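Q: Convert this sequence to structure tokens.
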Amino acid sequence: MKSSQQIVISASRRTDIPAFYMNWFMQQIQKGSFEVINPYNRKVTVVPATSDKVHTIVFWSKNFGPFIEGEHGQALAAMGYNLFFNFTINSDDALLEPQVPPLKERLQQLDILCQMFSAGSVTWRFDPICYYKTKQGDTRDNLSDFSLIAARAADCGIGRCITSFMDHYPKIRKRTASIPGFTFVDPPLATKQDILLNIYRTLTTRNIDLFTCCEREILETLPVDTGVGQSACIPNRLLTELYGGNLSFKKDAGQRIQDGCGCMVSKDIGSYQQQSCYHNCLFCYANPASGK
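A:
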């Protein structure tokens, strides 16, 4: 990396910092650095956190309520940080996402973020798309509120939606084993294609572009003229378009590039082990506490 290049801080793929850990985050900002433990080799890395070293902080969350109520965004902006938001807003489903706020509340948070920091700095993630069977034997999905959310996002000026299908990790099967009659279903490829195309058509009427996260197999089988793109949830090119500056455009080698991840290099400062997420989503790959 060139000495003149700044870094992007990802906060965080590993847990929900805006919902649960903003006090800790702001303490580390005041300290000027984060100590990050690699989840695989346990190596500790010091990540600089001063505004002269950090170009943008990318926040990931399902609940920006505490972030908004604490006025943390205003404080960070006043310190000279650029901010970008990956806001996951899925349909109301108390079984799949038991501890996230009601959809009405999350949509109000979306309004506030777009008003305070511009719609261009917010990406709406509908992630993941889930299919599951219940003890009644019927197959359900979590797409019921998609059109409603899309309409609200369009009203806010959102121009990007990122989605993916649920990954069926063994941890998730273990987590759901105690729910009578419940099982996640992995739809066939043709069904996934139809779902994406239907979503694409819904978003196109709202002037929202659709991108997929780590879904290369599906993308490669869609019609060539389909406008569904490959996502970069850490979008360094877009960040420089929004804020100027000098960032690396290299892909993040630590992500699933072979599956279609387009994320560019960043420093993720969250922790799976030390910072458990309390949303308790059934499909979560990240939270070891709920995967036992």
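The chain has one domain: 7-291.
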